[in-house]
Specification:
This protein has four helices and 14 strands. It has helices spanning 9-18, 110-113, 126-132, 254-261; strands spanning 67-68, 74-79, 92-101, 106-109, 117-120, 140-145, 162-172, 195-196, 202-207, 220-229, 234-237, 245-248, 268-273, 290-301.
Length: 302
């Protein structure tokens, strides 16, 4: 798990919601959305396993010429960038970085691994999100992140103020949110014209698709979706994020695995998934029968 992920209660709840598509899915299912990796990541080819990138001379505390923000973040430009635009709070960035504790111990480095990291700025600790938004493409900046903008004493995470050297390599603007659908009028229970399976799953075609092939139980699919509990409360959707989600059908809740296999590309279908085919009463997960509108955008891999 990436050490830069902010594991707040809100994020945990969001991940539970995202796992409508997979009990084992993390915050994002796309590989490029993973935050910087943990200490145990593989070093770059040819690099000594125990090699350390030396800590800067000012690792113990921000120097007098460091810029300080109202939040307590301190930073200093090491190399001026070539860009003119700064990332937004939800933009996806590609960076190289190295992180140290204030005693000079390196705990993570994409430079050491020889591979930059790409992730959205709303999926990292607050100090990172704020710091990278100060930068432009090509810039290298040293940041001193106080503990309350970092891991806040979480067990197993680096403690105290953290120091990072960050190089901003690329910025991709966040997708624009799409209109979020309202709860359907039949959210409380499947209507009479819904198709019911032996498993207890019920579904109804909302819009016919253009494809002819159905995904298999292990296919990788790309979908848009919205999910509600039977009281009409939406607990997750892809539309507000402005992008589809991709996942293997053998890595999701059983109701999704079965329901999406009934579909063809371009089809939009409403699913009524009984609790035993959803989260089975797991603490913190949406409870009871769940209702999803699913649009099968593409079968990525049969």
């Amino acid at each position: 798990m990436g050490l830069l992920v902010e594991w707040s209660a809100a994020m945990k709840n969001h991940l539970i919601a995202l796992s409508l598509a997979a009990l084992a899915l993390s915050a994002c299912t796309k590989k490029e959305e993973q935050p910087p990796q943990a200490v145990a990541a593989t070093p770059a080819a040819g690099a000594p396993v125990n090699a350390q990138i030396p800590a800067p001379a000012d690792v113990a505390a921000p120097p007098a010429d460091a810029e300080k923000t109202a939040s307590g973040l301190a930073s200093k430009v090491l190399t001026a960038g070539t860009g003119t635009e700064k990332p937004g709070p939800t933009d996806r960035v590609t960076v190289h970085y190295t992180g140290w504790t204030t005693d000079g111990r390196m705990f993570d480095s994409s430079v050491k691994r020889g591979s930059p990291a790409t992730f959205p700025l709303n999926r990292v600790i607050p100090g990172w999100s704020e710091a990278v938004q100060l930068m432009v493409k090509g810039e290298k900046r040293r940041v001193w992140i106080p503990q309350d903008l970092a891991y806040r004493g979480q067990a197993g995470a680096p403690a105290g103020m953290l120091v990072f050297d960050i190089e901003l390599l690329e910025t991709v603007a966040a997708p624009k949110p799409l209109p979020i659908p309202e709860a359907p009028t039949d959210v409380k229970a499947p209507p009479k014209d819904a198709t019911k399976e032996k498993s207890g799953l019920a579904s109804k075609v909302i819009s016919k698709g253009t494809g002819t092939v159905h995904p298999t139980g292990s296919s990788v699919v790309e979908v848009h979706y919205a999910g509600w509990t039977t009281d009409g409360k939406m607990f997750d959707n892809s539309y507000g994020r402005g992008e589809t989600i991709k996942f293997p059908l053998n890595g999701v809740i059983p109701g999704w695995t079965e329901g999406v296999q009934l579909m063809v590309e371009g089809e939009k279908r409403r699913l009524w998934i009984p609790e035993e085919m959803a989260y089975k009463g797991q603490t913190g997960a949406p409870a009871g029968m769940l209702v999803f509108d699913v649009e099968l955008v593409k079968i990525v891999k049969q």
